[in-house]
Amino acid sequence: MKKNLPMNRAEHAQMAMMLEVCAYPKPGNVDRCHDYPDTRLEHFLASAILARPVFDAAEKTGGRVGTLIREAVQCTNGHSGGNTHFGAFLLLIPLVLGGDIDGARAVVAATDVEDAVEFYAAFGLTSVRMAESDDLDVNDPASVAAIRERGMTLADVMAYSAPRDMVAREWTNGFALTRRCADLLHAHGCGRESVVAAFLDLLATEPDTFIAKKHGEAVAERTMRSAAEVLDGKRDLAAFDAECVLAGINPGSIADITIAGIYVALGEGWQWDC
Amino acid sequence: MKKNLPMNRAEHAQMAMMLEVCAYPKPGNVDRCHDYPDTRLEHFLASAILARPVFDAAEKTGGRVGTLIREAVQCTNGHSGGNTHFGAFLLLIPLVLGGDIDGARAVVAATDVEDAVEFYAAFGLTSVRMAESDDLDVNDPASVAAIRERGMTLADVMAYSAPRDMVAREWTNGFALTRRCADLLHAHGCGRESVVAAFLDLLATEPDTFIAKKHGEAVAERTMRSAAEVLDGKRDLAAFDAECVLAGINPGSIADITIAGIYVALGEGWQWDC
């Protein structure tokens, strides 16, 4: 009798979601020790649990990436915590469908207009806002008509959003930051401290576009420089975390990319448990 | 398009495991703010995630309760955190199979010798110790032979352990404390504070048999009285928690029963999210 069973891709995706939210301290984000008033640790963990059927379907029977993203949102938005993992699903669904980064690139390359329409339906289920400059407003039925008229695939929609959204940008650059995050995890070694270290490395080198949309580019740049000061030993991590939480500065896009990075690293043998 | 989907039984079981371990402060146990050196929050959450296929099987296709318990242990013991949920699975598997407490009672009543043999196989995969007085040692192959010879069903095995194990006792008394825990959750209202309140109510009225096996009856009784003093306002909850953690006094059996109580309460409409 086998003593235990290896994890499948769906489980790697769920574990990545769980490990990311539990890791602490992660400046500004919900973590083991911090909630926001409306979004709590339990909301993120519920989302990790409830996404399972969609990850299972993606792994076992494949399916349309746009539809699976919409279904992941539908499975996980039954709580009051708002959108917890929309960006993470944008990365995890192609990764689980394709298995790894190479496979995810192939999934992205094969998207079509129907995927884009399904994505807009998913978007409409969330409270995620597009940048104000976007003319493809998900609350405007005319947007779907415009997508069909222009023949935009989901990859085209992501390319359209990429300048202002680092999660969408992963679709256009071959999952470059996801790859970097996985490499950082391998470099930092096993366990949860490695998740925090990889997260801080990304935060110190990339302006988070979720922060930029909410607070402006300048705040995103300043947060990046502050994270670099933490790594240089010039700023205290706990104090930086407290400042971010107080100001509602949460690097949500880097969190999404960290989840994708953990998924990839787990598939490459990185050990979460040490 | 439905905005979100209702949870099924498997998801209620996983949510119960997640909500129990996140609730804090729970004196002496792993919670959001406390780990033990070898058993951490992430181990409990990994177990909640990885048990899904077994809960799904129990809900959708039924199956043998002893086999499902063994499979749940096999799905979830691939980490270094030791046995996190053996007692919880003893309660959750019949509850998911039967749907609710009435259904679980029927499952218990229908167990046979093969369930008992499977249970011993599950037990052998864990580091759970039986009380020293037990002559049915799971590490002794002769025990399985003895079970077959005596014609003991899994319900008989639980009745044999019931005097020294409050989780086994649930099988013999119709899930009485599980029922009481669910009633306490309804009475305390929605959300995670209610989980802590129900846990403390149980701790203040029942000596935890996991503590008794590890530290002796006197310590279990003393812990119960201390919990009652917390409820009477005569003792500080945080200080009591710290004392328990320092002494390794963890009420693991009451945690298992709390998980079962949350499962039942969720099925009856109790709201975790408020």
Give descriptors for this structure.
homodimer; 274 residues; mainly alpha; Triphosphoribosyl-dephospho-CoA protein; 16 helices; 65% helix; 0% strand; globular
**Rg for CA atoms of chain A:** 18 Å
The level of helicity of chain A is: 55-70%
CATH architecture of chain A: Orthogonal Bundle
Oligomeric status: homodimer
Compressed to H and E, one letter per element, the order of chain A equals: HHHHHHHHHHHHHHHH
The unreliable regions of chain A are none
Bin the strand percentage of chain A: under 5%
Overall mean pLDDT of chain A: 92
Tally of separate helices of chain A: 16
Pfam family, one (chains A, B): CitG
Protein name (chains A, B): Triphosphoribosyl-dephospho-CoA synthase
InterPro entries (chains A, B): CitG
GO molecular function (chains A, B): ATP binding; triphosphoribosyl-dephospho-CoA synthase activity
What topology does this entry show?
The structure is a homodimer of 274-residue chains.
Chain A: H1 9-22, H2 41-50, H3 52-60, H4 65-76, H5 86-98, H6 101-109, H7 113-125, H8 141-150, H9 154-161, H10 166-172, H11 176-188, H12 192-203, H13 209-215, H14 217-231, H15 237-247, H16 252-267
Helix pairs in contact in A: 1-2, 1-3, 1-16, 3-4, 4-5, 4-7, 5-6, 5-10, 5-16, 7-9, 9-10, 11-12, 11-16, 12-16, 13-14
Describe the protein in words.
The structure is a homodimer of 274-residue chains. Chain A is mostly helical and 274 residues long. Chain A has one domain (9-267): Triphosphoribosyl-dephospho-CoA protein. Chain A has 16 helices and no strands. Chain A has helices at residues 9-22, 41-50, 52-60, 65-76, 86-98, 101-109, 113-125, 141-150, 154-161, 166-172, 176-188, 192-203, 209-215, 217-231, 237-247, 252-267. In chain A, helix 1 (9-22) packs across helix 16 (252-267), helix 4 (65-76) runs parallel beside helix 7 and helix 13 (209-215) crosses helix 14. Chain A is globular. The model of chain A has no long low-confidence stretch (mean pLDDT 92).
